[in-house]
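Sat 14:20. Reprocessing the chain from the morning session after the first attempt stalled halfway. Input below, unchanged.
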Amino acid sequence: MEDVLDEWETAVQQLQIDPFGSASVRNWKLSEEEIVEIYGTRHIGRDQACRLMGLMDFFCFSEACLIVDMVQYFVDAKLEFDACYIYEDVNNAIQHVHHSGLMHRGILSDPHRYLVKNGQLLQFLRILKEKGKRLFLLTNSPYYFVDGGMQFMLEVIVRSFSQDIQGGR
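Finished this time. Tokens:
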């Protein structure tokens, strides 16, 4: 997990998109003086904020890294590009892979490659069940994906175990 966070932080540090839509890749953080020199302030105003896209959750790591890789490709090849189009293309590709089910089917076809087992998860769930706790899973993923992932992670028949938990048995 730390490697992912380090990679994401590096990617975010390297990607600079200014208020005019120009993008550059940097291998260093901007100092406060550089920020004020480039943007005139350290604060983002409402006019600038309406054009910014937030990358704020765990799922944005891959998106931020892919955007940085795309920008770096164009910079290295000395090709002109529009940062807005790179963002839109990356975002559309991610949305397509997610909504079409390609991502779910790809992960389930080779779960050892994408999912990390936690040997204590099943024990933790059993302790909760024994203590009479009722659990639910809130997700926007399809059932077949969650079921397949849980079967891989727990190596048990998840359906019967989840029915025991849901029924409070």
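Confidence is low (pLDDT under 50) at residues 10-14, 17-23.
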